[in-house]
Amino acid sequence: MENEMSTANKSSAVSDWTADQLPSLEGKTYIITGGNSGIGFEAARMLAGAGGDVVIACRNAEKGSAAQHALQAQAKGKVDLVQLDLSDLASVRSAAEIVATRYTKIDGLINNAGIMQTPELKSVDGYELQFATNHLGHFLWSGLLKPNVEAAQGRFVVVASLVHKMGKINFNDLMMRETYAPMKAYSQSKLANVMFGLELQRRLSDAGSASFVTMGHPGWSATNLQSTGPTGLMSKTYKWMNKLFAQSAEKGALPTVLAAAGVEAVPNGYYGPTKRMESVGPVGVVRIASHALNPQVARRLWDESEWLTDFKWAFY
């Protein structure tokens, strides 16, 4: 199992990839959650700069509008905005309906938005907030927009994290009501992202779909994730550690852009920084944790996610 998945990823040999290697994206459409700031904004800027039409899906309409205007000012393609709160499943359904109507073909559905190491909070649906936002919202969003991605033979893009390697899916307490810890919850949600991507690729392949899944992570990049999620001492620690160790959001966005539109990206390809334990540096192929490759756990997570979101994916 591990050798099979590792071989698939290694076959996508990429070294020191940059956005200059993008082809013309004229006529292609990319939807990116959290495109108003950080990694998402930089990825949207690069994709629109290469001629792609980009839709940024954002929770805050005011910030989203400001980002849309900033992006459009330097874009070759069009930049659109949709309001989306991934932690609210009703909002996910409403936003997906709008996107599906406006864009019948989606070349890249980029699951980028996320929150990190928040205090113990619940979503409006009663789920642990990090799991709800980072995993369940994207799981439903992707399922609802699957027909539009397949109409373009497009890509499902999963933005993961280095910390997926620390994660564990705790089926006995998915919402961590018994033993909540901010980092534990975050790493579980990011492991869920990776396992979702791998399981989606299995199901697309089994169904003979021309669409496929690519993944990437930004390493340690300075974004508002470190300032809006963690509290207290951890927030202060990130502030000075970012100055010492983090790379820019622009560099952190490169793996996402490669996964979304690079001709080098292949099914199950996983891309990220290749220096300092994958935290910074030139973009290439990076490693998926061995425990993320377990198909039995991935299938169970998929079933649990369908039940929690009250949504059944359709494969033909």
From TrEMBL:
It holds the Pfam family adh_short. SUPFAM superfamilies: NAD(P)-binding Rossmann-fold domains (SSF51735). InterPro entries: NAD(P)-bd_dom_sf (IPR036291), SDR_fam (IPR002347). Keywords: Oxidoreductase. Belongs to the short-chain dehydrogenases/reductases (SDR) family. PANTHER family: NAD(P)-BINDING ROSSMANN-FOLD SUPERFAMILY PROTEIN, RETINOL DEHYDROGENASE. This is SDR family NAD(P)-dependent oxidoreductase. It comes from Pseudovibrio brasiliensis. The lineage of its organism: Bacteria, Pseudomonadati, Pseudomonadota, Alphaproteobacteria, Hyphomicrobiales.
